[in-house]
Amino acid sequence: MTTEAGAQKLKLLLLDVDGVMTDGGIYLYPGGEAKKFDVQDGLGVMLARRAGMEVGIITGRVSEAVRKRAEELGIERVYQGYSDKNEALEDILKEYSADELAYIGDDVFDLPVLRQVGLSMAPSNARPEVREAVDYVSEAPGGSGAIREIVEWLLKERGEFDKIMEKYF
Fold first, then answer.
1. E-strand stretches of the chain
2. What is the gyration radius of the CA atoms in the chain, in angstroms?
3. What whole-number distance in Å separates Cα of residue 149 and Cα of residue 44?
4. Coil, helix or strand for 30?
5. C-alpha–C-alpha distance, residues 18 and 66, integer Å
6. From CA 151, how far away is CA 38, in angstroms rounded?
7. CB 38 within 8 A of CB 145
8. Is the domain covering 3-160 a CATH 3.40.50.1000 domain?
9. Which of 20, 47, 80, 159 is a good FRET partner for 35, with 20 to 30 A between their CA atoms?
10. pLDDT digits (tens, 9 = 90+) for 104-155
11. pLDDT for 1
């Protein structure tokens, strides 16, 4: 299947957190942790949703910062604490077919999911094994616009970029 055909079928864009939504840094404080999220990536999520894609998160860690960021972006499908991300994917596959899914991951723990979805993507700072296995690698690193770049690429593959961006220009 071509990436254009895969993009046309896409209904749910799934995101890893550490290394994709963030730069991978984890700031630990007594009573919690903090993460830095990129504003441009947030707009990327909004653009995906405006194009009719649902957006979800699958992450191995559990973080209040992730819950709050997901809430801010209107992401309702959030799977936290899944060290085996296939478990979350199995739940999702009850509702969607694999070719309706895309996943952005950056590390070897993401490979089992990346290999099963219709479209697989990674930020430029992903592990070499991941970059070699995916359909698209962004120029931007995780936590620094990679999601935005990937969403814009998906919208272009779907032929929707100009229409979605029209209101801004």
1. 12-15, 27-29, 32-34, 54-58, 77-79, 101-104, 119-122, 136-137
2. 15
3. 8
4. coil
5. 10
6. 14
7. yes
8. yes
9. 47
10. 999 999 999 999 999 999 999 999 999 999 999 999 999 999 999 999 999 9
11. 59
For 137, the token pair is: 């690698």
Q: What pairs with residue 121 in β-bridges?
A: 104, 136
Q: What is the pLDDT of residues 7-56, one digit of tens each?
A: 889 999 999 999 999 999 999 989 888 999 999 999 999 999 999 999 99
Q: Where are the domains of the chain?
A: 3-160
* Tokens coding 145: 């616009």
**CA nearest to 13, candidates 158, 93, 120, 87:** 120
Neighbours of 50 (CB within 10 A): 16
pTM of the model: 0.95
